[in-house]
């Protein structure tokens, strides 16, 4: 497994280089000018602007600019934000813990609800409970997350006052205290519920269908013929095979939840990298925008690797050669 992991990590290098090439040239093709944020708005003298363009390297050949950006990025220099006048790495480092906390909380919610609803629907198909779960799944797939977020804010924040509708922590709380962590969890819970519950539908449906399919296979019939308890058949034989599709999703969710939080973070005014990415696109902050895109690309590839490794742990019959 170690050799397989090393091979997969090495294979990521050309993929990431290709992604960096696409990201860089797409950013350069966007309308607007990145260097505008570096210039004193009180000085619009054409000569001064041209001097700044030369100083920032925007007159260099595009290939030379790309090469300089890649070399700096590999060395940990993500460039300087033209909006915040700070290194892009510093700004992302400030925001990413909030997004990780949001993604982790929503992932826990997703898998808890998907596991129990999928197990129930799979063991008791075509019953009233299964039909209700199926109805919820269709609604969750049909309703956009931003609509659900707005409705949740209206009812649970404005009407009932159960949850805050913006920020990541209460004002004036001392970091490291119990009240501080309670406030952070309170602020993240509503957006995490929206992300988690809206993403539960596909997991539940996959688990349900796989349980029904596996329950009809020969090895299950053999176990029943031997007098094995029904609970043991479902928990040991069927569930072990049916949980593999969920393991597939788990790896991809590392990046999907972070990138999918762009809209949710914006709606809830939650200070994570999703909202930061949307802001960087709107304000042409190319250093931050390209850095976040590369981070999400790496997480997607890394998540795929984790999913493949988990295959071998859940089902030893799958060999990773």
Automatic annotation (TrEMBL):
Xref: CDD domains: TM_PBP2
- Major localization class: membrane
User: Which key words are in the record?
Assistant: Cell membrane, Membrane, Transmembrane, Transmembrane helix, Transport
User: Where does it reside?
Assistant: Cell membrane
Q: How does it sit in the membrane?
A: Multi-pass membrane protein
- The portions of this protein that span the membrane are 100-121, 133-156, 188-207, 243-268, 288-314
KW Iron (keyword) present: no
Source taxon at top rank? Bacteria
List GO terms (cellular component aspect). plasma membrane
Looking up Gene3D superfamilies in the UniProt record yields: MetI-like
* GO BP, sorted A to Z: transmembrane transport
Q: Which residues form the ABC transmembrane type-1 domain?
A: 96-307
For this protein, the record's PANTHER family field holds:
DIPEPTIDE TRANSPORT SYSTEM PERMEASE PROTEIN DPPB-RELATED
Q: Could you say which protein family the record assigns here?
A: Belongs to the binding-protein-dependent transport system permease family.
Q: Which NCBIfam families match?
A: Opp4B
* Protein name per Swiss-Prot or TrEMBL: ABC transporter permease
* Organism annotation: Lysinibacillus irui
């Amino acid at each position: 497994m170690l050799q397989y992991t090393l091979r997969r990590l090495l294979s990521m290098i050309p993929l990431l280089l290709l992604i960096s090439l696409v990201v860089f040239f797409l950013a350069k093709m966007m309308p607007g000018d990145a260097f505008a944020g570096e210039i004193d708005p009180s000085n619009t003298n054409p000569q001064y602007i041209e001097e700044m363009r030369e100083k920032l390297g925007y007159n260099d050949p595009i290939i030379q600019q790309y090469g300089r950006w890649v070399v700096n990025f590999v060395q940990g220099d993500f460039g300087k934000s033209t909006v915040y006048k700070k290194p892009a790495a510093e700004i992302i480092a400030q925001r990413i813990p909030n997004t990780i906390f949001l993604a982790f909380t929503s992932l826990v919610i997703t898998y808890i609800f998907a596991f129990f609803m999928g197990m129930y629907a799979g063991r008791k198909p075509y019953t009233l409970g299964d039909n209700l779960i199926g109805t919820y799944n269709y609604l969750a797939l049909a309703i956009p997350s931003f609509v659900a977020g707005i409705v949740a804010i209206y009812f649970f924040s404005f009407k009932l006052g159960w949850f805050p509708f913006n920020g990541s922590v209460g004002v004036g709380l001392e970091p490291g205290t119990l009240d501080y962590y309670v406030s952070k969890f309170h602020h993240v819970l509503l957006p995490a519920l929206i992300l988690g519950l809206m993403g539960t539908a596909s997991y539940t449906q996959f688990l349900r269908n796989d349980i029904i399919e596996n329950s009809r296979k020969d090895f299950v019939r053999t176990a029943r013929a031997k007098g094995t308890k029904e609970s043991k058949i479902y928990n040991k034989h069927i569930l072990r095979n049916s949980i593999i599709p969920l393991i597939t999703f788990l790896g991809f969710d590392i990046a999907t939840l972070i990138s999918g939080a762009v809209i949710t973070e914006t709606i809830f005014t939650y200070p994570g990298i999703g909202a930061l990415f949307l802001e960087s696109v709107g304000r042409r902050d190319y250093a931050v925008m390209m850095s976040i895109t590369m981070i999400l690309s790496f997480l997607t590839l890394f998540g795929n690797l984790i999913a493949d490794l988990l295959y071998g742990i859940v089902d030893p019959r799958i060999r990773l050669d």
